[in-house]
């Protein structure tokens, strides 16, 4: 194995690359790392206000394409560790190969990879299988890597906030399917804590959940109680769900959500654990706290 860049004690000697820096987990990760005094390079797909907001946090923003090797080489140059996340779209495995090659050339100290809880080689969803393949690519690269296999984000509620405001908790999943929602802000704390301590975490695969497991029916009840209004569970087909989200015709998301419905029936998104709390050194945000934090969007 090649010698990889040692992490220095001084935060000023560390430069972390955060991909997907304008997304749900990337944005709070940039903020946390900057608050801790680290230098951060934030990779964004386009120049817009979200990119400027990252600059306002003190991050170095680079605009690039994760499917372009030279873009990634430039983004990763001089970094000591990196967070890799790719959207639910075609190109994940190719992006991981490109990222692994650039990381290997740079002797990167750590890749922290965002995967899925149900990652496995024979998954129902092509996207989930590709997450498993991405894990293998990073392992093969010889670059020290950590894989976060995360259950559903609590941000699901924000994706359907316009429906919740109408009193509808609408999902394409069965009422009794269970998972323990975890906010992206807590995932960012895990990312930050892992990047800070590469020697402790390198080679690990962590299954990450929120503090309490619920069925979708129970989540509707928590919404009702916390917002003090009636929120009714409603199951629709995947095409109907995507239409409600303005994503009608998105074949990749349709195939994934239909497969995830089966994953949930098989209990593959369920469970809780203490790993997140152990890494960040504090309790994870509860669902009620998340709802109250985002009350203006949900009520």
Short description:
The protein has 299 residues and is α/β, with parallel strands linked by helices. The chain has a domain at 11-151 and 184-209 and 271-284: NAD(P)-binding Rossmann-like Domain (Rossmann fold). It has 15 helices and 11 strands.
Task: Name the features.
about 300 residues; alpha/beta; Rossmann fold; seven-stranded parallel beta sheet; about 45% helix; 15 helices
Structure description:
- With 299 residues, this protein is α/β, with parallel strands linked by helices.
- It is built from 15 helices and eleven strands.
- The chain has a domain at 11-151 and 184-209 and 271-284: NAD(P)-binding Rossmann-like Domain (Rossmann fold, 3-Layer(aba) Sandwich), CATH 3.40.50.
- The protein has helices at 26-35, 49-56, 69-76, 92-106, 126-141, 156-159, 161-164, 184-196, 198-201, 216-227, 238-244, 251-265, 275-280, 287-293, 295-298; strands at 15-18, 39-44, 60-63, 81-84, 111-116, 145-150, 168-171, 178-179, 205-208, 214-215, 232-235.
- The strands form three sheets. The chain has a seven-stranded parallel beta sheet with strand order 3-2-1-4-5-6-9, sandwiched between helices. Strands 7-11 form a two-stranded parallel ribbon. Strands 8-10 form a two-stranded antiparallel ribbon.
- Mean pLDDT is 94; it is low at 1-10.
